[in-house]
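Incident log, structure service

09:12 report received: a user says their structure output differs between two submissions of the same chain.
09:20 pulled the input from the user's history:
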Amino acid sequence: MAKRPPKEPPAAAVEDTSDLKAAKELGARLKTAIEAAGGYESAAEVLDVHPNTLRRMTSGENDPKFSVVAALARLSGYRVDWLAYNELPQRRDDADSPPPPAGLRERFYWVPELDARAAAGHGAINHETEVKAVFPVPLSMIEGMGVMAERLRMTEATGDSMLPDIRHGDRLLFVIGEDSLRDGAIYVLNFGDDTLVKQIQIEPDGGVTLLSKNPAFAPRTISPDDRQSMSIAGRVVGAIKRFT
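09:34 re-ran on a clean worker, output below:
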């Protein structure tokens, strides 16, 4: 009696196998980048995620956020198009330059740059704001600021209300998690639907006045009752300046 030919697998099963293969290949590429970035623990600290989040990404359990893939690409030297879509070449042109001297990497902290802008009308900065990149800042510079490196974040400034101190396009370094406001300090803050960068003047009645460095912009006073609509993203402690 002749044997029956084997049945072809259902179309859905073929698609599932293809999806599983793609997920495994993506996980393998991400693992390569993570290893180039110093391993799970080191990469997770820089990207401000839990190491297990990265492990689930590489195992295919979780679909990675594109913002994490993009930040990992910048950190590791691999191209985001290769990491996300397997498009060659693998590495950026500048990633093939000679490696830094031994121990140089340990002298920097990779500050997360948030996917938001500090001006007006760009949405609030909070703990759920995605990281779009990371930026190396010398630990010696951070020690001079007197802040904890893990609390530093970066965001882009827009507009000219803080000229000449802060220009459009400057990257602001700010520290999160402080309990109280400092009179005269510059803050990235959320007021209503706006994200602003302003100098703060604390008023005797408990309100605050938001000051612009540019005299063309009038001060804005926030009453004690209206302060509940204002939240502080962080205190500005430095900036990466532009000159053009």
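09:41 both user submissions now match this output. Likely a transient worker issue. Closing.
09:42 reviewer note: DSSP finds six helices and nine strands in the chain. The chain has two domains: 17-94, 107-240.
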